[in-house]
Amino acid sequence: MSTVRYLFDEDFNGRIVRGLRRRAPRLDAQTVQTAGLAQAPDTDVLQWAATKGRVLVSHDHRTMRAHAEERLRLELPMADLVLVPQEYPIGRAIDDLALIAEATTADEWDGKIVFLPL
Q1: Residues whose CB falls within 8 Å of the CB of residue 75, separated by 6 or more in sequence, listed in order
Q2: Domain containing 72 — which CATH number?
């Protein structure tokens, strides 16, 4: 069983990412910037995350969700997607993302689109 590894979308709240890294320092959490995907189209980000087996975390409920649903419809490899509302409390987002990483395995994430709150 492999552990959940995150990829945070370009415009994702950095305070959540930093807080999650402090809370779970062993968690493998990467940003699109550190992955060399800054300003890449959503479709490229989804493809990269799928190839690397990462759960993509985004605030982009509209376009990222649409691209993810299209990948599922076409039966393409799909980066699992967690959508976090922009106005979601930072502490709750950190708690929920930590819980997902602690309570699930990467094997359980196969083409899922999940919305916070859980």
Answers
A1: none
A2: 3.40.50
Mean of all residue pLDDT scores within the chain: 95
Distances from the Cα of 42 to the Cαs of 28, 92, 99, in angstroms?
21, 25, 26
Here the contacts of 22-28 (C-beta below 8 Å, separation 24 or greater) are 23/94, 23/98, 24/98, 24/101, 24/102, 27/3, 27/98, 27/101, 28/3
Mean predicted confidence (pLDDT) in 39-65 = 96
User: What pLDDT score was predicted for residue 1?
Assistant: 67
Pairing of strands 81-83, 113-115: parallel
Q: Can you give the residue range of the structural domain that contains 65?
A: 5-115
With a threshold of 0.85, does the pTM exceed it? yes
Cα–Cα distance measured from residue 116 to residue 118, given in angstroms and rounded to the nearest whole number: 5
- Work out how many domains the chain is built from and give that number: 1
User: Over 90: is that where the pLDDT of 109 sits?
Assistant: no
